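Query form — protein Pili assembly chaperone

QUESTION: What is the three-dimensional structure of this chain?
INPUT:
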Amino acid sequence: MKTELKAKFLQHLVGKKKDDQGFTLIELL
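ANSWER: The structure tokens for Pili assembly chaperone are given below.
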């Protein structure tokens, strides 16, 4: 998977989960 596409995909998931779990993928990386 291309890095840019993966980044956008992860950002999309983070945007959905952010409200429920209260964290961002950046904090996990």
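ADDITIONAL NOTE: The chain has a mean pLDDT of 71.
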